[in-house]
Amino acid sequence: MTTSYPLSYGQQALWLLYQLDPKSVAYNIFITAKINSPLNTSIFTRVWEKIVEHHPILRTTYTVQDSKPVQQINKKLKFTVQVIDASSWSEAYLTEKIYSETERPFILEKDSVLRVYLLTCSEKEHILLLTMHHIAGDMWSFDLLLSEFQALYTAEIEPATQEQVKNIEDSFTQNKSYLDFVRWQSDMLSDARGEKSWQYWKKQLAGELPILNFLTDKPRPPLQTFQGESYFLKLDAQLIPKLNNLAQSFGKSLYQILLTAFYIQLYRYTNQEEILMGSPMRGRRVGDLKKIIGYFVNLVPLRITVDATATFTEFLTQVSKIVKEAQKHQNYPFSLLAEQLQPQRDPSRPPLSQVSFVWQQHQWCQSTENSLHTPAKVLQMEPYLLGHQRGADWDLGLMVMEAQGVLKLCWQYNTDLFEAATIERMAGHFVTLLENIVADPQQQIWQLPLFTEIEQ
């Protein structure tokens, strides 16, 4: 008999959305990586089967019992690795096929929540595609899965003892599972920690919440839609070290620098002095849960008041302070917060905030202490950045993907609101803004140039 367990608050919210539209792919997430080595496909498949066996959340299905959603861990669940010959495909067609695979709905009541594809372009060139329903994982989970794959595949090719392999596996989970987080979250919300965070958020989000009055290209539908597209822009290699130097000189992170710039851009578009933006945080502040696969990420609403006469430097200090405070309370579930603060929300808009800023750092491609051997000798892998989600949770979202010193911007937008050309212009404005910020961070917000040379 299969045992049933409760869902986390984040999972409950996703289950509700799934019930409303089971065919929606808005919460399908994915990651792609390039493998520049010959592969033994039998070992490749065996490693992924072992990984699925290792993580209970990857063998979990979802259903309703006594009118409540529950998750059930299966001892075995049908799981297949798809190996596809892509040797005759152009890069454009390869991308198209990848996106089409990520847009296949999951049937949460019976499907495996993880799909693994190996698209073979040549003997020494492959694209690894992982697609998952968000209810079972997040982008940090992908990072962990890719790290574990590299370690286990290398151990299979350059044989290790069973004890060494088990040590690798245990180093990733530390004998914990996502159910430990569900229990921890329930305990946290019922004691002083949860009350302290609720009081913080209630104060931060008191009064009437600001709605960002963006000028959209199309009339807003009466019900929120999740139809999305993405526009990608790789930051110039000469701009990135300048941004790094600026961050180091102020003792701030690149995340804080670009987040502050995004606030300025939104202010310049809307002239609104008060802006509420959502920014997902890892939600893994508990030490022994950091290496667990599961849906931990939690959207944090960051409310900022903009003074146009402040310099970028002054505004950066203000934004950084808000971020640091919010990080202390990032474990309070966003779905619960939205329910408590907006019980009668506008159905045409996302809850609390219409815009998001996401920082996605790819750490799997860095060296790891979990490998028994140097992975590059056996398995040369590199990021293959195509985004992570095709649907649009918000009206507009800016994701920054950081991998091996490269920063790639992904503008995710709702196609029922915006035209592609509008988003492309926004991306150009953001780069112009960054260039002028690094040139003179003491400029006042209202003075910072926004338009590209062509527009001027």
From TrEMBL:
Domain Condensation span(s) in chain numbering: 3-455
InterPro entries the UniProt entry points to: CAT-like_dom_sf (IPR023213), Condensation_dom (IPR001242)
GO cellular component, one term: cytosol
Pfam families for the chain: Condensation
GO biological process: amino acid activation for nonribosomal peptide biosynthetic process; enterobactin biosynthetic process; lipid biosynthetic process
UniProt superkingdom: Bacteria
Gene3D superfamilies: Chloramphenicol acetyltransferase-like domain (3.30.559.10), Nonribosomal peptide synthetase, condensation domain (3.30.559.30)
SUPFAM superfamilies to which the protein is assigned, alphabetical: CoA-dependent acyltransferases (SSF52777)
An example molecular function term from Gene Ontology annotations: phosphopantetheine binding
Coiled-coil residue spans: none
Name listed for the protein in its UniProt record: Non-ribosomal peptide synthetase
Species annotation: Symploca sp. SIO1C4
